[in-house]
TrEMBL record:
It is a multi-pass membrane protein. This is C4-dicarboxylate anaerobic carrier. The chain crosses the membrane at residues 43-68, 80-102, 143-159, 166-183, 195-215. It is found in: Cell membrane. GO terms for cellular component: plasma membrane. The keyword Amino-acid biosynthesis does not apply. Keywords: Cell membrane, Membrane, Transmembrane, Transmembrane helix. InterPro entries: C4_dicarb_anaerob_car-like, DASS-Related_Transporters.
């Protein structure tokens, strides 16, 4: 299972630069991995190493290898065999490392790096309802799985052929969530409860990434005017509050040398 998941993700990384798009993937395989006796760290290692090693050994990745080759004025296929070897060697090492750790955790859960969350994760991700405990696989559940898979296929198609990025990917996942609500037969209360609970897990990451990418400064202006470009905020009050933060990366030779 680790080999298949990491291999497929690495394939996306080496061909079209699949990387940060996998942020939404992390919670999805957790129930399967926990049922197999692994921990959540195994899931993180499988996905993260897959994307990292895949992009590291970019064979035909148009966003890194092709652009760099065109800039240098060389054929991007010139060192393709070397990049394939680098991909296979690094991916093999990553798979071996993850499998060794996963098997150690499976044999002795106390050796998990997140053992303090072991019971909490089992209750959270393996809390099956009574219908699931009976082993019934209804047509609604089948249709739910098909909708889920179709959403990923649409996302992969959009990223690879249409150049979709975070905004359009988010729209795909939002649309799929509404479709899952319709086909699964969940009540409105349970759907909203699950939706809010899932969104809450990503809220901290979203705020961190959004704030980190949003703050920029125009160095040619006389005063420190802050433009929160990505967050669509343009308030001078924000500039006043973020002034000390911007001073951290002020070039040497400014106010310090003039003093």
């Amino acid at each position: 299972m680790i080999v298949i998941v990491m291999g497929l993700i690495a394939l996306g990384g080496t061909t079209f630069g699949l990387a940060e798009e996998t942020m939404a993937f992390y919670p999805m395989p957790i129930p399967v991995f926990l049922e197999a006796g692994y921990d959540t760290m195994t899931v993180v290692a499988t996905i993260f190493l897959g994307t990292t090693l895949g992009t590291l050994g970019s064979t035909i990745n148009p966003f890194s290898t092709v652009i760099a080759s065109n800039t240098a004025g060389v054929n991007f296929a010139r060192a393709l065999p070397l990049r394939i070897i680098m991909l296979l060697v690094s991916l093999g090492a990553g798979m071996l490392y993850t499998i060794i750790y996963a098997e150690k955790v499976r044999k002795d859960p106390s050796k998990s790096l997140v053992y303090d969350q072991y019971e909490e994760n089992k209750k959270k991700f393996l809390a099956f309802d009574s219908q699931a405990d009976k082993g019934d696989f209804t047509w609604r559940q089948k249709l739910t799985l098909l909708t889920f898979v179709a959403g990923f296929l649409v996302m992969i198609w959009g990223v690879q052929s249409q150049g979709w990025y975070f905004t359009k990917i988010a729209v795909v996942f939002l649309a799929v969530s509404y479709l899952l609500f319709l086909v699964s037969g969940l009540s409105e209360h349970r759907f909203m409860e699950s939706f809010v609970s899932g969104a809450a897990d990503l809220l901290g990451v979203a705020l961190t990434v959004g704030l980190a990418r949003a703050v920029s400064r125009k160095p040619h202006q006389r005063h420190d005017h802050v433009l929160l470009q990505q967050a669509d905020h343009r308030h001078e009050q924000a500039g006043f509050r973020l002034g000390p933060l911007l001073d951290l990366h002020r070039p040497t030779g400014g106010r310090a040398t003039s003093a």
